Amino acid sequence: MGQRIQRFGIGQTAKVMGVMYALMGLIFIPFLLLANAFAPGRSGFGVGLALAMPVLYGVVGAVFAALGCAVYNMVAGWIGGIEIELEEPILDEPAG
């Protein structure tokens, strides 16, 4: 029997997604710095922008997650939420 996600908590989901996007931005810093170091004519972005990217990713990710949750909650109210199927966890039997 399937269950439905009826609604997402907008604030909590936006916080989690903001932190996740900020962490992904941290992963991109070395690549951005390497691209800047090897850019011809040094016309690329600066180190400051590379360091600001995780913050920008986090803020934009949180804003769009909040918007997405609000739209999902509205649509789920009209036509129903996403159906998922959950499985009971398998508990290990004690050795004995």
Question: Which terms would index this structure?
Answer:
single chain; 96 residues; two-stranded antiparallel ribbon; mainly alpha
Q: How much helix is in the residues?
A: 55-70%
Q: Proportion of β residues?
A: 5-15%
Structural class of the helices, strands and pairings?
A: mainly alpha
Give the averaged pLDDT, no decimals: 88
Number of strands: 2
Summarize the helix and strand pattern as letters.
Answer: EHHE
Radius of gyration from the alpha-carbon trace, in angstroms: 21 Å
Identify the overall geometry.
elongated
The major pleated sheet works out as: 2 strands, antiparallel
Termini Cα gap: 35 Å
Short description:
With 96 residues, the chain is mainly alpha-helical.
Please provide a written account of the structure.
This protein has 96 residues and is mainly α. 64% of the residues lie in helices and 6% in strands. The protein is built from two helices and two strands; from the N terminus they run βααβ. It has a two-stranded antiparallel ribbon. α1 packs antiparallel against α2. The longest helix is centred in the middle third of the chain and has 33 residues.
Give the helix/strand layout.
Blueprint: E1 3-5, H1 10-37, H2 47-79, E2 82-84
Antiparallel strand pairs: 1-2
Helix pairs in contact: 1-2
